[in-house]
Amino acid sequence: xxxxxxxxxxxxSTVSFVINDRTDIRIAExxxxxxxxxxxxxxxxxxxAARSLASSRTNLLGLVTDIASSPFGGGIITGxxxxxxxxxxxxxIVSIDSAxxxxxxxxxxxxxxRVEGLIYATAGHVAVSLPEAAAxxxxxxxxxxxxxxxxxxxxxDEEHGGYTATRRLIDGGHRRIGLINLDAxxxxxxxxSGYERALRxxxxxxxxxxxxxxxxxxxxxxxxxxxxxxxxxxPSALFCxxxxxxxxxxxxxxxxGLRVRTDVAVVGYDDQEIVAxxxxxxxxxxxxxxxxxxxxxxxxxxxxxxxFDGSIVRGWLVERDSA
Amino acid sequence: xxxxxxxxxxxxSTVSFVINDRTDIRIAExxxxxxxxxxxxxxxxxxxAARSLASSRTNLLGLVTDIASSPFGGGIITGxxxxxxxxxxxxxIVSIDSAxxxxxxxxxxxxxxRVEGLIYATAGHVAVSLPEAAAxxxxxxxxxxxxxxxxxxxxxDEEHGGYTATRRLIDGGHRRIGLINLDAxxxxxxxxSGYERALRxxxxxxxxxxxxxxxxxxxxxxxxxxxxxxxxxxPSALFCxxxxxxxxxxxxxxxxGLRVRTDVAVVGYDDQEIVAxxxxxxxxxxxxxxxxxxxxxxxxxxxxxxxFDGSIVRGWLVERDSA
Lengths: 323, 323
What we know:
- The structure is a homodimer.
- By secondary structure, chain A is α/β, with parallel strands linked by helices.
- Chain A has three domains: 2-46, lambda repressor-like DNA-binding domains (434 Repressor (Amino-terminal Domain), Orthogonal Bundle); 60-156 and 290-314, 3-Layer(aba) Sandwich (Rossmann fold); 158-287, Response regulator (Rossmann fold).
- Chain A contains twelve helices and twelve strands.
- In chain A, strands 2-1-3-4-5-11 form a six-stranded parallel β-sheet, with helices on both faces.
- In chain A, helix 5 (74-86) links the parallel strand 1 and strand 2 (90-95).
- In chain A, helix 1 packs across helix 3 (29-42).
- The longest helix of chain A has 17 residues, at 185-201.
- Chain A starts with a helix and ends in a 5-residue tail after the last strand.
- The interface between A and B is large, with 49 and 49 residues.
């Protein structure tokens, strides 16, 4: 700043007023123009730390997440980053190993950067407990729910997802539809009610023996599908709780000497592209609204955060070739 | 600081000296103890911005990457984050959409936070060009190479990976080994030389008709494997450039009425767990040293960065059931 002032023969404070865009002090437009020209020429960059002390605004949002290092849920980061950018804000991401590992130190270090809001996002739909320190700034959770109920959450509409997948199979003419649910409580309960609602609406009795559950991977999908396909009256369609479970179900269908779609229709959940788009046949599935949830969190922090109670965002069906 | 000073009847500067740990000024241990007690009691947190202006060190490292929102390469973030933490440094991650989209603004905003070093990491092994602004702080590239040759890179040893995979198949008794390479130039060239070196070492002639290449996905793997398996003298083993290509190759093997491993051994590349660990049979593959590369970047920034020319890190074979 001293360099610019000397270069132009202006006082240091005049230069400072221009650079900090002080609207309470009148400075000639010509002077402003000369200052900015000199600034560009001399390669001055406002020191974020100094500016933040002066203006009290940092335009920083913190994102604490286990997604950055995970193959799931990357859309949350994409959506949040874009929305922050549109608000002229910078998203500082801190990566944690798992949803359970949010220690106070991670939150503390973002608070020391004077983030003006905090987003806590998880790859899976889980319950979390945040360190006390988080309460110092507005907080929004994405894809997870606060066990203590203190913070608003943006979560996917699991019931609607379960309904959409099941309804797609009913529309395809199926009446015996197996549900291979994942055993994680938060996503599975909603998906099961959606499944049951779709069946009831179509006048189909819910047969609880057709509902099984296990871990979210292909191994569990294989075992559970195999189990259902061995019934004397097996299902003609399977709704699987994750695309990876559907990947395992494909193998069980083949092992039973049957063909996916022709003999057993399969719908997945997640739209995890490296699985869903490349299975043979490609997988019809329910997409989770990751980008939308990430963007919604940034919008919430920029809006009436006091009045924000959270929101439930709908995913959608991605039609491919398995149903 | 004023509150603490008033509370203890000390001068503001004494409190400041204690909090900023000024070793050039002697303060009684008893006074220091009282200050820290009061600080804890009154809930004071050093303002990172103020501290950084005072001390000129921020202990911040910036990571610009397309990995945070991608299903690949998450280990780089995990490794870098852990190493930064061990150095008492905070890793601020900025997510970009693709390796090609590192615009100057993203780099600028990290520089405004006064990061003391910059890591630029990509999900795929590619060539990149960094905005001019990056040159203001030490820079290390991970999993990518600077087209202008200005910055050191930490990259995987692709030649060694190709050698390891091929050698594994030779040790399994195979002599006609197909290479289904990916067409991205940086990783594929090294893998092919490793493949050829392993063959030559074993006294096997390199048959160029057994080397094909395509995009990194399962669709390309399927088509290319199908092509090789239709030869009158088909390969008995396939080394695939990605686990997803191997996933497609599995389907081509099955379509030809053959069995993976028993009839055609397959080795992949990447150790992308959601594919490799759940294919049927599970996939023997070469792991990329993602965590090691991420950690090495942080170590380089904390070491003799002027003398650092980059490094090449070896991956390893992950034995499963496909070869």
